[in-house]
Automatic annotation (TrEMBL):
GO terms for molecular function: acetate-CoA ligase activity; ATP binding. Keywords: Acetylation, ATP-binding, Ligase, Nucleotide-binding. It holds the Pfam family AMP-binding_C. GO terms for biological process: acetyl-CoA biosynthetic process. InterPro entries: AMP-bd_C, AMP-bd_C_sf, AMP-dep_synth/lig_dom, ANL_N_sf. PANTHER family: ACETYL-COENZYME A SYNTHETASE, ACETYL-COENZYME A SYNTHETASE 1. It is an enzyme of class 6 (ligase). Residues 249-327 form the AMP-binding enzyme C-terminal domain. Residues 7-187 form the AMP-dependent synthetase/ligase domain. This is acetate--CoA ligase.
Length: 369
């Protein structure tokens, strides 16, 4: 945590570093507590949500404390992007030197907004890929040293050996441009060593699926330049009429539309296709949800990806169920899409639990009841 904090965020003595995560999440552990404090950094701790009391909350804190490095989740950025640029532009963000993202792949539209509106085109963006189990960054650009591409976590950090495997055979795909499941070939500092009280589960979950490799559970594409692009969780793959596609791909297509602020896509049981595509869509401020817009978005996805990716149902979602650290709780969205709302599980970590009730009221099943 200390080394990645120092080099990935280009931390220097006297800088003010802010990771917006909840300290109960691993990002808070590694990049609010362990890394910054081991480096003697000034670290901002924040309790709250980015939209309260208004959509300028993050930027007000940056201005007040003259934050130099700012690290947050793409979900929070997409939500704030939908509120309009004026909330960013009213604050003095000249202290910012570097911007970071964490928690999920960032779509190019949100990356560009972050770069141009928040960073004024002058701040390098570090799109970091890592996991609770890894302890710190594994894939990340180094600011000023590695050219970035919107949406790519770029290349491995010092000493990390990522590989892409064929999900069917487990064979390592050695060509530069390829796609499969992301695994790690050798150990690295900070990795987890066991699951407390259940070492057998630890071995089965991370090391048995592909013998000799750490299995991340993420799909990944490597481009011709050797840059890595996380395509989403392997279990976030929908099988539509025998065609497999990542939910992140459909989400990115939806968010690319000018009137969409945020989107979350899950699969749900479909009588003919096996699985259908259920999309939750949050619109930009002042955009009215209409049937015409729903049809336009369906056509948009068909054009962007292909007919097989057209959502079977688009539900307007004024808000999505998110933890206080900004991560979307997709299991809740799956339950609603499957009409299994009696077993939603624990929702106590949600920033706004009332969002769930509204989503249930407006679900496909309520509309067709």
């Amino acid at each position: 945590a200390a080394m990645t904090h120092k080099y990935v965020f280009d931390y220097h003595d006297g800088d003010v570093f802010w990771c917006t995560a909840d300290v109960g999440w691993v990002t808070g552990h590694s990049y609010i507590v362990y890394g910054p404090l081991a480096n003697g950094a000034t670290t901002v701790m924040f309790e709250g949500v980015p939209s309260y009391p208004d959509a300028g909350r993050f930027w007000a804190v940056c201005e007040k404390h003259k934050v130099n490095q700012f690290y947050t989740a793409p979900t929070a950025l997409r939500s704030l992007m939908g509120q309009g640029n004026e909330w960013v532009e009213k604050y003095d963000l000249s202290s910012l030197k570097l911007l970071g993202t964490v928690g999920e792949p960032i779509n190019p539209e949100a990356w560009n907004w972050y770069n141009e509106v928040v960073g004024r085109g002058t701040c390098p963006i570090v799109d970091t890929w890592w996991q609770t189990e890894t302890g710190g960054h594994l894939l990340t650009p180094l600011p000023g040293a590695i050219p970035t591409k919107p949406g790519s976590a770029t290349v491995p950090f010092f000493g990390v050996q990522p590989v892409i495997l064929d999900p069917a055979t487990g064979e390592e795909l050695t060509e530069t441009a390829t796609e499969g499941v992301l695994c790690i070939k050798d150990s690295w500092p900070g990795q987890m060593r066991t699951v407390w009280g259940d070492h057998e589960r630890f071995q089965e979950t991370y090391f048995q699926q592909y013998k000799g490799y750490y299995f991340s559970g993420d799909g990944c594409r490597r481009d011709a330049d050797g840059y890595y692009w996380i395509t989403g969780r392997v279990d976030d793959v929908i099988n539509v009429s025998g065609h497999r596609m990542g939910t992140a791909e459909v989400e990115s297509a939806l968010v690319a539309h000018a009137q969409v602020a945020e989107a979350a896509v899950v699969g749900y049981p479909h009588d003919l296709k096996g699985q259908g595509i259920y999309a939750y869509v949050t619109l930009m401020n002042d955009v009215e949800p209409t049937d015409a817009l729903r049809k336009e978005l369906e056509k948009w996805v068909r054009t962007e990806i292909g007919p097989i990716a057209k959502p079977d149902f688009i539900q307007w979602a004024p808000g999505l169920p998110k933890t206080r650290s900004g991560k979307i709780m997709r299991r809740i969205l799956r339950k609603i899409a499957e009409n299994d709302t009696g077993s939603l599980g624990d929702i106590s970590t949600l920033a706004e639990p009332a969002v769930v009730e509204e989503l249930i009221r407006n679900s496909l099943y309520q509309k067709t009841a």
